[in-house]
Write a structure and sequence with these properties.
It is a single chain. Helix 6 links the parallel strand 5 and strand 6. A 7-stranded mixed beta sheet has the order 2-8-7-6-5-3-4, with helices on both faces. The chain has a 3-stranded antiparallel beta sheet with strand order 9-10-12. Strands 1-11 form a two-stranded parallel ribbon. Helix 1 runs antiparallel to helix 8, helix 2 runs parallel beside helix 8 and helix 3 runs parallel beside helix 4. The longest helix has 39 residues. The protein starts with a strand and ends with a helix. Helices cover 43% and strands 13% of the residues. The protein is an alpha/beta fold. The chain has 2 domains: 139 residues, Alpha-Beta Complex (Aspartate Aminotransferase, domain 1), CATH 3.90.1150.10; 237 residues, Type I PLP-dependent aspartate aminotransferase-like (Major domain) (Aspartate Aminotransferase, domain 2), CATH 3.40.640. The structure holds pyridoxal-5'-phosphate (PLP). Pyridoxal-5'-phosphate binds next to helix 3.
Length: 387
């Protein structure tokens, strides 16, 4: 059975061009870029080329990019560096809808004595900017707010947030793991001090990420050891994956606008068709400011997990809530923060598309979802009453 993969916010396939580019560095060209000999030393140039490609995608300078092992490491490093840079300040601002990579790190810092404000969001998943401004005080060292949400796809007003923080000279970190490669980001035009990204969300392998640190921003390494990454992140470079990340960023940049149109077209078709064919369905999140590839839908009177299992029988991969927290039946913290009723949270499904999805795949989901929902509602005591 062919897999129809609509779970690209959880992870993506490695693009064939990316795999071709990285493969020689897993096989024959296995040297260490820090070596004096040509065999290893030649890899240094490849790492620097990759750095330039990552920088180009987000409008940064190559020396502003630090390679890491993943988005989580980039997020942790950024926040830790920020609080260490301003040691006399003990207040951190974040939001309730962040990924655990930020949320749990802030909780960890709270246990160490930092004061953390978790900003609320409205029904659309958007920040209340008045609440945000009011939460800033003399003790605030860093604000960490995500660029785009992994579950709802909602995009935060990053430009505005950056301006507010620049004026107040407060460090701004954004978790852009879901945004990079999906929407245009130009750091030359944004007041962002640190930005996290992750390879496996944009068709590079798992286990590689990057952290952008704006020139002039004080930085404290999180992983300490050798001199790699100019002493900003120790550990022998994951050369093949770094090269892969560079290639993935290059591909994303080349096709960004075309892909955005393609993905939005398919996502909107899927969403509109399901809303029409399945009664008591709704979209979760601000439809006017959303990633082009994501739709989060709630189907009343059914369980999201039951829908996923039925979809799975057709080889269709989607997600209920965040894939990173799946395995637990805890209702999504993002949808809860948005005030989505418990019954709707339980019936929520996220479809997240990529350039490798086809219209035929979308049509397949459009065809099989209505009978699945109907059948599951017949099994549910609440659903039966509604039929
Ligand atoms: N931030 C967001 C918004 C994410 O969606 C994810 C992964 O799902 C991460 C951070 C963590 O990235 P990684 O899996 O590379 O550690």
């Amino acid at each position: 059975m062919d897999v129809i993969y609509f779970d690209n916010n959880a992870t993506t396939n490695i693009a064939p061009e990316v795999l071709d580019e990285m493969f020689p560095y897993l096989k024959d060209l296995y040297g260490n870029p820090s070596s004096m000999h040509t065999f290893g030393g030649q890899l240094h140039k490849k790492v620097e080329e990759a750095r330039a490609k990552v920088a180009k995608l987000i409008g940064a300078e190559p020396e502003e990019i630090i390679f890491t092992s993943c988005g989580t490491e980039s997020d942790n490093t950024a926040i830790m560096s920020a609080v260490e840079s301003v040691p006399h300040k003990k207040h951190i601002i974040t939001s309730r809808v962040e990924h655990p990579a930020v949320l749990n790190f802030c909780k960890h810092l709270a246990r160490k004595g930092y004061r953390v404000t978790y900003l609320s969001v409205n029904k659309q998943g958007q920040l209340n900017m008045d609440e945000f401004i009011k939460s800033i005080d003399e003790d605030t060292s860093v604000v960490s707010l995500m660029y785009a949400n992994n579950e709802s796809g909602v995009i935060f007003p990053i430009t505005e947030i950056g301006e507010i923080l620049k004026e107040r000279k407060i460090l701004f970190h954004t978790d852009a793991v879901q945004a990079v490669g999906k929407i245009p980001i130009d750091l030359k035009k944004l007041s962002i001090d640190m930005l996290a990204l992750s390879g496996h969300k944009l068709h590079a392998p798992k286990g590689v990420g990057a952290l952008y640190v704006r020139k002039g921003t004080r930085f404290h390494p999180y992983i300490i050891g050798g001199h790699q990454e100019h002493g900003r992140r120790a550990g022998t470079e994951n050369v093949a994956s770094i090269i892969a990340l560079g290639k993935a960023c290059e591909l994303a940049g080349e096709n960004l606008y075309k892909e955005m149109t393609y993905l939005k077209g398919m996502r909107d078709k899927l969403e509109a068709a399901l809303l029409k064919s399945c009664p008591d369905a709704r979209v979760n999140g601000d439809v006017s400011r959303r990633l082009p590839n994501t739709t989060n839908l709630s189907f009343e009177y059914v369980e999201g997990e039951a829908i996923l299992l039925r979809l799975n029988e057709f080889g269709i991969c989607a997600s209920s809530g965040s894939a990173c927290t799946s395995g637990s039946l805890e209702p999504s913290h993002v949808l809860r923060a948005m005030g989505v009723p418990a019954t709707s949270i339980h019936g929520s499904i996220r479809f997240s598309l990529s350039r490798y999805n086809t219209e035929a795949e979308v049509d397949k989901v459009i065809e099989i979802m209505p009978p699945i929902i109907k059948e599951l509602r017949q099994l549910s005591p609440y659903g039966r009453e509604r039929l």
